[in-house]
Specification:
With about 210 residues, the protein is of the alpha/beta class. It has 10 helices and 7 strands.
């Protein structure tokens, strides 16, 4: 259990992750021993994820399904840099060689634009999260929308320390196909497309 003055809370959104939740939370146990709080926010799992996560987290919370309502990663202060928000570099877990290139491009693009994605472990001060309005209640692109709001308060701290995000969706639906889909969705979003329409396209099973 973290001390009352813990400065960092790690929020892990979860939905039917029984196959991998224990391994993911095991990696956070050294941080818990250093007074970092680990909170699992479950979006309605029906596969036993909550029971598996309970011994490995400080708190288990229930929330409506959807990353926007589940994920609130807050860091209390970035005094060393003078900045109020940022993100990590990301690696994509998987065997396909293109995943390394995609991760490199994600990190490079983020440094160039000041926009971060949820895969990059967004963090911010509690006060800035409130000032920026929190995660918007949209079904897709909520991380992009939040990044745009955060940029109005200053540039992000881009940490070269890496976190690993799952490459399952990329490999399941085809890496090149998924990459093209994400480019199209992002382009449509910046042209003003409705996030609800984009979410339907994102969730649509790929053609054989």
């Amino acid at each position: 259990m973290p001390s009352a003055d813990a400065r960092l809370s790690i929020i892990v959104p979860c939905l039917n992750e029984a196959a991998g939740i224990v391994a993911a939370l095991d990696r956070l146990q050294p941080l818990r021993r250093r007074s970092v709080e680990v909170i699992v926010v479950d979006g309605g799992s029906g596969d036993g994820s909550v029971a598996l996560a309970a011994p490995l987290a400080d708190r288990i919370l229930a929330a409506p399904r959807g990353r926007a309502s589940q994920m609130k990663l807050i860091v209390d202060g970035l005094a060393a840099s003078g900045k109020r928000w940022g993100r990590f570099d990301v690696d994509l877990d998987g065997a396909h060689p293109l995943l390394r290139l995609i991760a490199f491009m994600m990190n490079w693009r983020s440094r160039l634009t000041g926009i971060a994605t949820g895969d990059q472990g967004l963090f911010m001060t509690r006060g800035l999260f409130a000032d920026a309005g929190g995660f918007p209640a949209i079904p897709l692109m909520e991380d992009i929308a939040l990044s745009k709001s955060l940029k109005t308060f200053g540039a992000p701290l881009c940490l070269r320390a890496r976190i690993t995000a799952s490459g399952r969706r990329w490999e399941r639906h085809g890496v090149a196909r998924t990459m093209l889909l994400m480019w199209r969705l992002r382009f449509a979003y910046f042209r003003g497309a409705e996030p609800a329409d984009l979410a339907m396209r994102y969730d649509r099973p790929p053609l054989p």
